[in-house]
Every structure is written in structure tokens, then in C-alpha cells.
Batch of 4 targets.
Target 1
Amino acid sequence: MSPASGTPEPFYDPARSYGDNFEHGPFGLFADNTFAVPADEPKHTFLGYKVHTPFGIAAGPLLNGKFVNAALDAGFDLPVYKTVRTRQYASHPWPNVLAVTVEGDLQPGRRLVGHQNYGSPLSITNSFGVPSYDPDFWQPDLAASVKHARIGQVVIASFQGTLSGHGNVDAYIADFALAARLLKETGVKIIEANLSCPNEGTANLLCFDKHTGRRVLQAIRHEIADLPLMVKCAYFNDNERLRGLIHEIGGLVDAIVAINTVPAEVVDDAGNQALPGEGRLQSGVCGASIKWAGLEMTRRLVELREDLGHKFEVVGTGGVCSVQDFDDYRRAGADAVMSATGAMWNPRLAQEVKEHSHEF
Ligand SMILES: Cc1cc2nc3c(=O)[nH]c(=O)nc-3n(C[C@H](O)[C@H](O)[C@H](O)COP(=O)(O)O)c2cc1C
């Protein structure tokens, strides 16, 4: 059962493979398209676009255009098309999503037990390896979803570069820029550079490497001119390190999205690695237990924006499973809010926010 609404079926089904979800999803209420999108004038603005509700689905659960269209129909006014690459890239083997048991707030680097009881409050681990189809597939697919958006809705597209076998940094940066160009060609109105997923074969996230992060964003900016650019960051333990990053990149981006998942080791009941394959003992945790980290980053980004004199908008993500969570992020200063795990298990979440939020 869903933790939030009694809905039995998440729109991404963890019991099925990534490919099966991609082909046959979305599932449950999301697929039924039973929600009413308001006809009144949008009251909010995000990155220069009018939006009904500054609320969306973060990069990941919306695997392709069918999912994005369903999200738009369900009233998620800022849906993000799952991170794409400049070429086809395979998914990690199934399972890619498991529930995890966490007592209270999750601190980074814990060991957790993974299982299939998706109860409330819900935290999960997700481990896909950022799969992608070829641009030949995703360019027309994304372009059609951009057109599906109604007044007051904006489709966002997430992307990242792919490191070559030789680890050549210049080629990696050029690949980010190429992905941005291919996205721009689709007519998408906002793009999101993902600097927060482990880049293949390296332990560090790009957002923790401020110099390379800056070079990546400069190359993208050069390619896209004034197309609105968001950057996705992970949780930072160290505020001085975050300040250093914002100092480097704050003037290059239009919005900063935080956070991605929080890393943990995930094992089964017997203490063995839960997700099969090399490098998958540690994976990213999202959902209710990381809300504290997303809220903290939202507050810190708002403060740093003031301190350093930047203008970027702040998009708060992490553990948004209810209207209360949305309101908490807005009070923390988020210009927009996004949910991944919460929305997957509650396709009515955007409607609930529209009906009951005190913060928009
Ligand atoms: C199924 C799933 C797939 C995800 N895939 C991506 C991805 O491709 N790119 C990305 O930047 N973040 C990805 N994420 C991370 C989310 O965008 C989000 O930052 C994180 O899950 C925290 O939000 P939540 O607590 O609401 O889930 C994924 C999350 C989930 C649940």
C-alpha cells in the first residue's frame, strides 16, 4: 500500500525490470489519467515561465515521454525527464529499487537492510547506473512531451556526460556540452545538468570537484547561450566546501537543485550485499529519511545566494512525501520543490498540494 494515499501501485513498479517499466509503464492511477488540471491563470513564475504550482517530479522516476505526459496530466507542473546521455547506456541489473529500513534521519555512510515492504514512512534505495537510450529515441520523445505541457507547466530535461574508457576530462566535458546541444534542439525550455551522480569509475561526484564542475558548466553555457540551466547537487557535509562550489558556479546557472540521494551500504537480512554486481554494495537512499538533508541544503543555498550576491533559484528536493513536506521546503526558502520517491507512491501528491498547501 502507498504510505500516503492508500494507492496500491507505484507508477514505477520495483518488481519489474527497468526495461519492462520503460516499455509498459507508467502503472496504477498515473496511467489512468483521471486528474483535472486547473484552467485558471498561473500565479507563479519559475525561471521566467508561468507555473500553476512550483512543484514537480525530480529527475529519475519519469523514464520517458509517457511518464512525463502522465505527470503533467496529474498536475505536476515541473516534471523532469530522466537523465539522458549522448548515447545508449545499459541499466544496472534488477533489482533497481528496494525499500530500506531507517530509524529517523539517515546520516551518510550507514549500513541498511533492503527489502520489499514499501511501508510508511518510506525510504528506498535506487540503483540504475543512469541508463540512457540513444538521442534518436529521446529527442523526438522529449519534444512531444514539451508540446504536451499546458499553460502553467514546463517540462525540464536532465542530462549528464559520459566518461570515456581513458578518463579523458576534456572529452568528458565536451560530451556534457554535446548533450546540452542535443537537448536544446528538442525545444525543451529548461535543462538540468546532473553533477551529482557518481561518474563512471570514479568515487567522487562532479559537484565535489568545483574546478571541473565550473569547466563543465562553462562549456554547457557556451553551447546553449541563454537557455535556462539548472544544476543538480548532492548533500554537502561541509558548508565551506559548498560555499567554494557556489562561488565558482553561482553566476553560471539559473537554478540549483539539491539534493540527490544520500549514500549508504544496503544488505539483505543475512548481511550480504542486497543489489547484485560490482560496486553496488553502496547505493543512494531517498525518501522520508533524507528530508532533513534536503531542507538543510535548501536553507544553506538560500543563505549563500544572499552572501555571495547571486540570483539563481533554489529547488528543494529530498523526502517530499506530503503537503506538509512541500510547505516545509517553501518555508525554508525553496523557489520550487520536487519529489521523486513520494510522487512514485502517490500520484495524487500534486493535486493534494494544490488543494491543501498553505505555502503557495
Ligand atoms: C527511481 C529513481 C530514479 C532516479 N534517477 C535519477 C536520475 O536519473 N538522475 C538524477 O539526477 N537523480 C535521480 N534520482 C534522484 C532524485 O532525482 C532525487 O534527487 C532523490 O531521489 C531525492 O528525492 P526523493 O527523496 O523525493 O526521492 C532518482 C530517484 C529515484 C527514486
Target 2
Amino acid sequence: MTREIDVVVVGAGQAGLSAAYHLRRTGFEPGRDFVVLDHAPGPGGAWQFRWPSLTYGKVHGMHSLPGMELTRADPGRPSSEVIAAYFDAYERAFALDVVRPVDVLAVREGERGRLRVETSAGVWSARALINATGTWDRPFVPRVAGQETFRGRQLHTVGYRGPEDFAGLRAVVVGGGASGTQHLLELAPYAAATAWVTRRPPVFREGPFDAEAGRAAVALVEERVRQGLAPRSVVSVTGLPLNDAIREGLRSGVLDRLPMFDRMTPEGVEWADGRSFAAEVVLWATGFRASVGHLAPLRLREPGGGIRLVGTRAAADPRVQLVGYGPSASTVGANRAGRAAVREVRRLLEGGSGLSGAAAA
Ligand SMILES: Cc1cc2nc3c(=O)[nH]c(=O)nc-3n(C[C@H](O)[C@H](O)[C@H](O)COP(=O)(O)OP(=O)(O)OC[C@H]3O[C@@H](n4cnc5c(N)ncnc54)[C@H](O)[C@@H]3O)c2cc1C
């Protein structure tokens, strides 16, 4: 059975919920006019999977969703619990009726200029799609010579559960972003020895990260997306905030950075100049890619590897909005993108014939 609906929102993280809120506010009814599908077991978007030691007090700045502040959150409580509870309350307050767990498997050209959304719970036929699937489901690990020969454990940030797992071990942490430094500072007191490895020398940022610095960082990512290049994370262009914990890590030597190693061996990692570090565990804090594999049948990708956007709209298909992608992959960006995407969807649906025209083009 195929269900017909105006708008399918894929993903109920910050970006998808923001879009759902704005759809509701402008008169779209959940269930009748739009549906939000999410394949996670509960509310919270990717936050529900973040490691328990990432307490709410340690996150960089969570912007509330539109229309309902996140107040009185206990900074000592895991952010996975705080955000999941907040999103749950939010979904109920605005009766967003998120349907879960539903895995969106493929979105392809449908009949009469509509999009065919194939899922684990059947098919929806939609006039527009707001994609808000984030990056958590696509952890990225670079390929390194000899990787498969390493006898120790390798894990990515997605599999990190806390520093206790590293007790007494020699550990390599790869990655110069916020996750890499947070992991390292946390696990160093437990591990027998640590090495921090990053591809590029880390850039530390003095002073507050104000609105102007934020805008400049977003503009950099935006420019890449406009050119159809694969987006970089917003965090990757903001630099690492030089807070007390980082200062202490630099002072103690935990954050003495080494360049990327050239190969892995059964016993550890090696550099071409003959240096080596024996290790029992390698933690890849090497980031994520956009989870957009289900959009592949629409052929939105440019030769540069990214999906070119005009605002939030896919340049190659005006029926598709991407929110939480590239420049809007932060909580504040996701909020704004949700509103912008709904404005675009309304314009498209009110334009009527624009739909089939676009599909035919
Ligand atoms: C470790 C870490 C810490 C961060 N800290 C901050 C911070 O402090 N401040 C900040 O602003 N940003 C932070 N970010 C960036 C953060 O990811 C974004 O701010 C924001 O939470 C992302 O929201 P989203 O809605 O785009 O994605 P997500 O929260 O990832 O939501 C995507 C949703 O889509 C669903 N989904 C994915 N694919 C499918 C599919 N095929 N079918 C159905 N459902 C699907 C998922 O289940 C998920 O619920 C952090 C990121 C990481 C990795």
C-alpha cells in the first residue's frame, strides 16, 4: 500500500524536529499533510547514542528547538539523557507524531512528479521531502596501510563508551576535532600511555566564540556546499576552543600532537621516519560523512562529491530540502534550516504545477 502525503521529513533530530515544528505552525497537520520518519528507537536524534561521559555540561552549546526552551538541565547528567528527554517532551508538546522506528531505504522518482519514499514500513508518495538524517550513521575511518594487520582493538567515536575501557592500555587517538581532544583528555588518566595523532596541526582558538566567528565558520562550509563539494563539519573550521581542560592537556603533554602515522603494524603504528608507538587500542575520532545514501537514486551528487544546495534546496531537485547538512550541521544552524526549508516547501506546493515541471525537467 502506498500512502500519499504532501511532505515526508526523514529524521527526528534537531533539524527534522525544527522542520516539523515550522510545518505545523504554517498549517500542515501531522499524519494528514506530513509525516516524520526516524529509524532510531527513541527520541533524541543522534544525541541518544552519545557516550555516557559526555555530560550536558561538556557539550559546546546546545541551542533549544524553536518554541520551547531547554531549561534547568543538570550539567552533570549525560547529554544523551538530557536531550532525549527534551526532544520527547518537545514531540509531545507540539504533537509531532514521529513514526519510529522506520528506516528510509530509498527515495526515487515516483508517479505524477511525486517522490517515492521506500521504507521498512512501506511506501510513502510525497510531493516534497525534507531530509534531516545527520551524520551519526556514517562514521568515517581513513584507510591506512597495514590497518587490517593490527592485533589490538580499533574503534570509532560512535563506539566510545567511556575512559574505563582504556584502563592500563596504550592508546592512540586519531583526530584533531572536539571529539578527539575530549576522548584523549578523558582517557589519559586511565591509559598506560597515549599518543595523539592528527593529519593537520590543530588550530587553537583564543577568546570567546562569538556570533561573528560563528558566521565566518558557517560561511566557509556554505561556500563548499554551493560548489557541490563534500561538506566539512562546522566544527572543523571553527578551531578548538582554548579552555581550561585543553590548556591543562597542553601543559601536561597529553595534547602533544604527532603527525599522521604512515602505517599500522600488528603491534601499533609507525611513521616513515622510523618512529613507532606500540599500542593495544586505536580510537578513530575522525568524523562523519552525511547520511544520504538513501537519496542516491535521485542522483543529486555532484562530481565534487557533495550535494549542491541553494539555501536548503537541492540545486538538482527542488522537491528535496537538506537540513542539518553542511553549513546547517549545528544545533543553531539546524533550527534556521528547518524554518527555511518549510518556506521553500510551501512555495513549491503553492506553486502547484512547479512540482511536475521540476520533476519533468
Ligand atoms: C560528538 C558530537 C558532539 C556534538 N556537539 C555539538 C554541540 O555541542 N553543539 C552543536 O550545536 N552541535 C554539536 N554537534 C553537531 C550535532 O550533530 C548537531 O548540532 C545536531 O545535533 C545534528 O542534528 P541533526 O538533526 O542534523 O542530526 P541527528 O541528531 O543525527 O538526527 C538525524 C536523525 O535521522 C535519523 N536517520 C538517519 N538516517 C535515517 C534513515 N535512512 N531513515 C530514517 N531515519 C534516519 C537518525 O535516527 C536521527 O535520529 C555534535 C556532533 C557530535 C558528533
Target 3
Amino acid sequence: MKIQKIEPFVLVNKLDSPFYFSQWEYDTRKICIVRVLLEDGTYGWGEGYGPAGVVKAGIEFFAPFILGKNALETESVWQEMYLRSMDYARSGSFTAALSAIDIALWDAKGKLLNQPVSVLLGGVKNPVIEPYATGLYFERVPDLKNKLVEEAKMYKAEGFKSVKMKVGLGIDEDLEYISAIREAIGCNMKLMIDSNHAYDYKEAVDLARKAEKYNIGWFEEPVSPEDYKGYKRLRENTTIPIAGGECEYYKHGFKRLLDNDSVDIIQPDIAAAGGITEVKRIATLASVYHKNLVPHSWGTWIAISAAVHLVANLDKNPGRMYDEKPTMELDRTENALRDDVTAHQIQMEKGQLFVPSAPGLGVDVNEDELNRYLIAETKEEYV
Ligand SMILES: [Mg+2]
């Protein structure tokens, strides 16, 4: 079944409530999604994570090399894109473009074969997922601590079993918010912290040691993603598990992270690290190193659904009769591009996601809404 057309779309939406974290402020969401059309009219949707205009350029670069190829041969198409780009794009946004096309092909393949992607990956080993709520970003409000506390309580009321908060404003301020949120949600809800590589090793170990008493599920991106040894030293000097990997690409990037014994949990983004095809390989690599994989996810229901199907297929590590449900990131921040443009088949109840059985990813795109947010690009922003 030949690939006939590849159409990237850049969607833009100005946020009602701008927010910030340790690195910069968001006032806009901008996302590149892609539709891959096959010769019989079947189509699949994909999404790339990162600067949308660059992802779009990458998709346009790959398109002529894969038009006419058999959409069912997802690995063959993947390899063609990988080899066409490896001389000058062994990581970064071109990998996100490759990921977007790969996700779309898996969606189309599922529709063609009338099977969900999770079954095509080898089976649904985890029919129920307990995602963690991502939120608790900073906003320019008079009482930031109260805003964070109320938001954390809301996730608990919605049934989430775990929540991740941002840190990276300085050790004292971080600890003030960690303490307030832990008190607000009680001791039975997991709480993770994410500094988005705001700290150097000494600062990170200082925060980690002082935060240990708040029972932190993991400390995400404590130091620069380039500082593999800083990651390792931190792991050896705190009881808090260390997570990272949203800035890594392909199996080779994750091998560096794992070879350096940098993390307890790896966090590939399926819409960036190489698509469903490559993240399945990365999951195998992680299992060889006896590390858990918890996908990073930040975008529309296309990217979220890709993560759901991948997690559904993950091996239990270690296996046991009474296991915790696997988890993944579920961004709860304002995102009209996610909520208006895309729809999904995932049942959500009391903090649990039930893996959908609809063909492909089980996502739909509302074309009227897509056209509404399809705005001519004015400037490139990382959103
Ligand atoms: Mg993160």
C-alpha cells in the first residue's frame, strides 16, 4: 500500500494563562502534526515534538524519499529516513520530523489491518495505565504557592495517583513549594519534581537531599542533559530516583545515558526520539539495563495516544503478580490544540487510562478546528 501524500500542518494558539518554568515562559502553543495519505485513501496522523516550523521543514525534507513506498513496511521507511538524515541530523528536530511520519504510518497501518497499534506492536501487556498529571507550572499570580496547592488538590480530586511539579527557581523557593504541595496532597499520592536541567551537580544534590523527606517519586532532569557524570554522581548521593532523557534521541542517545549509569528511569518522547519504531527498540535497550521507561509526552492526543499504545506493550520490569500499573506523562496544562483539534478513544476514569481497541492510534482530527488554528507562521517559538 503506497504512500501517496505527506501533509504537515503547523497549528498555533495563544494561551489564556501564560506560564513559566526554569528556562522560559510560554504564551503560545505551536505544534506540527502530519497526515500521511495512502493510495487507497487511508490516512494516518502523526506529531513531532519541538519547534514546529523546524519539524515541518524536516517532514518536507523526508517526504520525497518515502513517497511511493509501502506504508506497511514501517521499519523500511524508518531506515530510509534515518539514513537520509544521519550525516547532518543525528539528533534534534529532524528526528522529531522522522518521529511524526513514523507515528502516522503506524496509525495508517493499524487502520489498514483493522488493529490497534498496541496489538501490532506485539500485544497489550498493560491494558490499564496510571498516568501522572503534569502541571504545577509557575504563573505570574499574586500568590503562587496557593495557586500550586489548589492545582495539586484538583489533580488529586480528579483521581490521579501521582503528580509532577516544576522546580528550578532556587533551592529555598523550590522547597517551600514542595513542602506545601506535599502537605496539600497527603502522603498517599506520588509527587515528582522536574527542574528542566536548571541546576549544576552541587545545587542538584543539595536540593535532592533536602527534598528526600518529602518522599519524592523521582527528580527529573536535575542537571544538564550533557552532564552524564553529574547525573551519575547525583544518583549515588541521594535516595531519590533520578529520571531523564527527554532531550535524548534514537537508541544511541539512550545508550549513552544508560552506559553512564546516569538515570533510574528513561523518558523518551515518542514524538521526538525516533517514533514508535525506535522507542520500542529503546524500551528493549532499557530492559537490558534493567531500567524503567516512562514516556515524556507534551502535545495533542496524537502524541499522547502514541505513548499509550507503546506503554500498553511494555514488558513488566520486574514481573510480579501484584504489580503497580505502568505510568506515563499526561500534560494537564492549557492546550486548545490538544483539546479542540484532536479527539481520542482512550477511556479515562479515576486516574486510569484504558488502552483503546480502535484501529490505529484511535485518534481523530477535527478538520474545521485544524483550519481554525492553522495560522500563517510569524515567528518560530519553542512551545
Ligand atoms: Mg521534563
Target 4
Amino acid sequence: MINTSVISEELRLKSVDLINQRVLITNFNNSTQKNDFTLPPNCEGYGRIRHFKRGITNEKWIANPLPIDPVSKALSLDSADLIKAQVFQLASCNWRCWYCFVPYNLLSANPQYAGWLSAEEMIDFYMNLEERPKVIDLTGGQPDLAPEWVLWLIKELEIRNLADEVYLWSDDNLSNDYFFRYLTEADRDYISKYKNYSRVCCFKGFNEESFEFNTSASRDLFKSQFYHFERLFSIGLDLYCYTTFTSPNVKGIGRDIAFFMDELQKIHENLPLRTIPLEVQIFSTVSPRIKSIHEEAIKVQYTAMEKWREELQRRFSSTMLEKNIADVPMRRIN
Ligand code: SF4
């Protein structure tokens, strides 16, 4: 079982250089992760192009409009089913989800697979691309082990006059309070007022059992995810959610999905409409980790998805269900 608070502090120390304002970024050149890429790594190995697709791979699942719709709305782009993003990946994560498409050796701040980059160096790499995507995606790993990263990137985008033409998108696994612990109120205010930035927060499961099974962290942290999300929401960040529904147990699943949606709606009644369940699929990195219990868990996610759909139908009007995710009213401005 992962001791999340201890491992988070250890990884933070190895992943952020406050004096020089740098973070430890994965270099894909010697990684097996690059075997799953459509295009080779770029930025001397420190970056990659990600194709975010809306497409449905399976009729049992739903489309994924993230980050396509928020970006298209903010930058006044035509509606699309695919958007490219320039990805930089923090070389650390405090959890070990069995379905993670990142090899575990790229999640432990291992200098063999990573190097230190400042925001200035990342934007230099970005500016040197022949074809620059409209989105920069700060992913991981858990980017919020270094919450300064988003702040430094925003400031660099402003310095380069890119704030109106580039959309910044970042992930958060809702595992810690570092955004509040290590940033000042002024820093948080700066980020929340920056118009072309959104964060997608990932709920790992729909109950304590599925959370623990998915992350290898203590089941007590399942409810902490809602707490961390609510704090981010309270300062006016533009937020979206992912969730995964893999679970070792199908018993009581209808009740537990309803409870999960109740908890989301305690934060905001429309939050389920800004939440996209992700279909867990087996990439080449993941397949060696798969045992029979994981195969069963993959089947359970489809039952959970049916229950999720039923709950959405029960709680929202067809007008609300058909809304573009970027138009679902939710943002709170204090
Ligand atoms: S929290 Fe995200 S990056 Fe970390 S192991 Fe899970 S899926 Fe991978």
C-alpha cells in the first residue's frame, strides 16, 4: 500500500527546483512509452504530440470531448473531433494505477529518463516546432507535485505574447493539497484569473474499493479526492473531471454509482455533466501488468457505465444532457 503523503513529499523534492524554477520532465527517447506514440518524441525527447480524439471506440462507451470543446470555445476554433496538443510530462507520480499508460519507471523521478527544464526552455522547444499545436498539455505523472509548474508556464506564455493563442491544459489526480500548501494566495489568484487555462481532475474509481484497487493507495483517500476538488473549485479555476470505473467488484454498483454522483453534485449540481468516464484499455505498456482480476475489472466498468448513464438520465433534462461540455454552467467566481 502506498503511503501517499510520504511518497508525495519525496517525489516533490526530486521533481521541482525552486531556485532555478525548473521541473523534472520525462525524456521519452529511451523509454518504452514511445512505442505507444503515433509520432516520434519531439523537443529533443522531452515532448510529444498527443492526439486527443472525441471518437467512441466502443458502443458501450461515450465520446470524450476533452479538451477539444473547451479549447475550441476559448480560441474560437471550428468544432472538431480531434485536437493536437504539445505534451510535457512530469517524471513523477505518487500513485501506481495498474491501467496507467506510463511505464512505472517514468513515474519515480528517475534521472535516467528525465531532465530539468524551465518554462522558458519548454516554450523555446515549443516555438521551434514546425507545426505548433494550439494546446500545451502539462501531464504526468502527477503535475501537482509541482504546482509551481502551471504558474511558471502561464507567466512564460504571457512574456512571449502567446496567452491569447495557446490553451494551457493540465491534469491532477486529486491526491494532495500542494496547490494550497506551496503556492501563495496571490499565485493561486493569478492562475485562476488566467483565461486560457483549464484543469482536468481524475477521480480514480467510484467507491473506496475501486479507488484502492485502481491506485494502490489507501481507500481513505477516495473521499479526499472530493475535498481536494472542492478547494480548487472554490477559487474559481475552470475545472473538468475524468473518472475511471474499473473495479474488482460488481456488487452494489448501481447504489455506489448513485452515491458517487451525489458526492459530485454536493460540489455543484452540474458537475456530473463536466465529468467524463474514461474507458480503460490495454496499451502495450499495461499488458504485462494484467492478471485475471484486472480483466474482470475491465468488464465491470461497462456495468458501471450503464448505471452512470441511467443516473444522468434520471437527474438531468435532455437539454442539459445535450449541452456542449464547455457550456455547462459551473464556474464559481469568488
Ligand atoms: S495517477 Fe495518473 S499518472 Fe499516476 S499512476 Fe495513476 S494514471 Fe498514472
